[in-house]
Design brief:
The protein has six helices and no strands. By secondary structure, it is mostly helical. The protein is elongated and about 60 Å long.
Length: about 110
């Protein structure tokens, strides 16, 4: 119960989907697989994850990117160009590909 109250005070979108999923799942877990509701009784949880948790979380995350970075930066991809600098090449799992993309602007 306290975790669901935390949704209103959490400034990021990373924990909100998980908290909503756990709060809804707790209510339904006792009914999974019961003969009264049939073998597909857990199917609604997967649908709930898509419709009520994942899609709204991704949409609000995308809207917040527009709010923080602006529409022009999103369309032109400046947020990717700002993140790609030579100093971060050692963090890449494929440094050769990273440097190729960094030096060839048409790839970006």
């Amino acid at each position: 119960y306290i975790a669901t109250l935390g949704i209103f005070y959490e400034p990021s979108h990373t924990n909100q989907g998980t908290i909503l999923l756990i709060a809804a799942s707790i209510q339904a877990v006792p009914f999974f697989g019961s003969p009264k509701y049939g073998p597909g009784s857990a199917r609604w949880l997967r649908r709930f994850i898509y419709v009520a948790v994942l899609i709204p979380t991704y949409i609000t995350a995308g809207i917040s990117k527009f709010r923080y970075r602006g529409i022009v930066d999103q369309i032109q991809g400046r947020f990717i160009l700002d993140a790609m600098v030579v100093d971060k090449v050692e963090l890449s799992s494929l440094p050769e590909l990273y440097m190729y993309i960094l030096h060839h602007k048409w790839c970006q």
